């Protein structure tokens, strides 16, 4: 507001100067003098004409005409009172009311039509951006009301106008648009955030989520590509599987939808209130593809490290699923970067190692985890490992790495 008042004062001062200059620099009116000079010139010209006309015999009563001409000249000359009449109004008597009128009219019109209350609210909302952003990013703080969402949108747009390279701001704006089902704004905001920081997993996920709502096949293909990249990371957000399941169900790939929903169940566990909802979704998908029973077809493995385990930065995690009898030949295996622990990975039929034998065909199995320190799977000296108890297909497995070769 300080800038507004400074600017308004400068404009009003300029207006007052423009009004004051003509009043202060008022010039005298010489119209009467100029008219006298003109009348004298016309009188002399007419006398010359009368003289010529008299000499030519065209005029008989020259003196009478001269008398009439003199009388006309006297009638056209203003009397002394009119000539000497000059305004006695002082310039300040005009200037001061003009200044008061300009100031009163300017601020009065602004108070009436300038939306001062809206401007103040806009500035208050912009100042409240950190608190609103924190509440949006913290689910435990409760959901934002409709008015708070509108305020946050206004504050974000204001900030992004001045800081267009703020990827976090574009991400937040995209999330608000997603909540309001404003697909166009969501895609545009998430795309801008992705262009500014395409390595941020939250931005990749948000961009994929926005593209999933598009009716354009190209956008949806881009979303699947982003989700496919996210699923390769050490830690996979459960929302990635949710989007993949939603997409698979929309494409009537019910088998894939069941697989992703099953993975989600294994990640959250039966104690989570979303577990039953996912069960209903799985059951619905199974009915759509004609199945009568639900059976887990993937193996979720939670890996933890014992306190004495030492790792190197170039170590990798090798997870293998074996038959319940402990056969050294794995039915399925996968290799992951070291990452952080504890962590959960999921193996399915795509990780099968044997021709003609799928992981989902096992009824019981054990899981072995090895931290390979040199990147060579053929060598084991000094590697840390752990093994699970026997588990049934679909059951989550926990493995503690606590032994060393």
Description of the structure:
With 405 residues, the protein is an alpha+beta fold. The chain folds into three domains: 2-23 and 38-79 and 88-113, no CATH class; 138-288, Serine Threonine Protein Phosphatase 5, Tetratricopeptide repeat; 300-404. Helix content is 56%, strand content 12%. The chain has helices at 2-24, 31-55, 62-76, 80-84, 91-113, 116-127, 129-137, 146-162, 167-179, 183-196, 201-212, 217-230, 238-250, 254-268, 274-288; strands at 299-305, 316-323, 332-337, 343-347, 364-372, 384-387, 391-392, 397-401, 403-404. The strands form two sheets. Strands 2, 3, 5, 6, 7 and 9 form a six-stranded antiparallel beta sheet that branches. A three-stranded mixed beta sheet has the order 4-1-8, with helices on one face. Strand 2 and strand 3 form a beta hairpin. Helix 8 runs antiparallel to helix 9, helix 9 packs antiparallel against helix 10 (183-196) and helix 9 (167-179) packs parallel to helix 11. The longest helix has 25 residues, at 31-55. The protein starts with a helix and ends with a strand. InterPro entries: C-type_cytochrome_biogenesis (IPR051263), Cyt_c_biogenesis_CcmI (IPR017560), Ig_CycH (IPR056412), TPR-like_helical_dom_sf (IPR011990), TPR_CcmH_CycH (IPR056413). Keywords: Cytochrome c-type biogenesis, Membrane, Repeat, TPR repeat, Transmembrane, Transmembrane helix. This is C-type cytochrome biogenesis protein CcmI. One of its GO terms (cellular component) is plasma membrane. Residues 300-402 form the Cytochrome c-type biogenesis protein H Ig-like domain.
